[in-house]
Write a structure and sequence with these properties.
Number of domains: 2
Number of strands: 9
Distance between the termini: 30 Å
CATH topology of the largest domain: Rossmann fold
Radius of gyration: 22 Å
Structural class: alpha/beta
Largest sheet: 4 strands, parallel
CATH architecture of the largest domain: 3-Layer(aba) Sandwich
Length: 227
């Protein structure tokens, strides 16, 4: 399952952002940050204790089922009084969740977490980045393995000269993604794709801020309109 991977900010930074707020309401998320153990119920409860130690009054807390969906407003309404009594909301969700909550609440919001990347759990407690949303996908030529996310150098033509027995020269504990790509293409009988030259990566292929509109009656791949 794909998740937004987060990590908690230093407590000093969190307290600093809450300066001037004596009453705080805490919001966690039941999906991504629960999985990464950065914003589920145990983490929210622990955060409440740490805020009290910092002489903050916690007016209440909740863990939204999904902090970034359309039901966020209704879920927040269940704690209307406790939220109304707070000066600030401390949000233990991904950045998308923080922004979603901010759209529905007329109070300052403070993110307690840094959103690192979109990733997948590879082993219990081990999350690996699988996509950087670069907007220029090369997976057709790489056996479905992303070199942009998987290579420390972001190389779209590889391997580099530093790969050593299938390991990355920057991190010897990490498999060289281009070795993995080679092995996958060999298995698929498509090693010829290794010779396909990829032009220099255009990291600004989509203008920022990005937006895409797809008509409801879209019937073909050409119906999408990019802005």
């Amino acid at each position: 399952m794909i998740r937004s991977i987060t990590q908690q900010k230093p407590m000093a930074e969190i307290i600093g952002h809450c300066e001037g707020a004596s009453k705080v309401f805490i919001v966690g998320c039941g999906t991504c940050t629960t999985l990464t153990r950065t914003g589920g119920q145990p983490e929210v409860v622990k955060m409440a204790d740490r805020l009290r130690e910092a002489n903050k009054e916690v007016t209440g807390w909740m863990v939204l089922p999904v902090a970034c969906d359309e039901l966020t407003s209704e879920a927040l309404e269940e704690n209307r009084d406790a939220i109304a009594g707070a000066d600030t909301l401390l949000i233990m969700t991904c950045a998308f969740g923080v922004q979603t909550i901010a759209m529905h609440i007329d109070k300052p919001v403070v993110p307690a977490l840094d959103t690192l990347f979109i990733g997948k759990e590879k082993a219990p407690g081990l999350f690996g980045e699988i996509c950087v949303q670069c907007g220029e996908c090369v997976l057709a030529d790489t056996g479905g393995i992303c070199p942009v996310a998987g290579c420390h150098k972001g190389m779209v033509n590889g391997p580099c000269g530093g790969t050593n027995k299938g390991k990355c020269e920057i991190d010897s504990n990490k498999d060289c993604v281009w070795t993995l790509i080679y092995e996958k293409l060999e298995k698929l009988g498509r090693l010829d794709r290794m010779r396909a030259y990829q032009p220099p990566k255009n990291y600004h292929v989509e203008p920022r801020p990005g937006r895409i509109i797809i008509p409801f009656d879209a019937r073909s791949e050409d119906d999408g309109t990019k802005l």
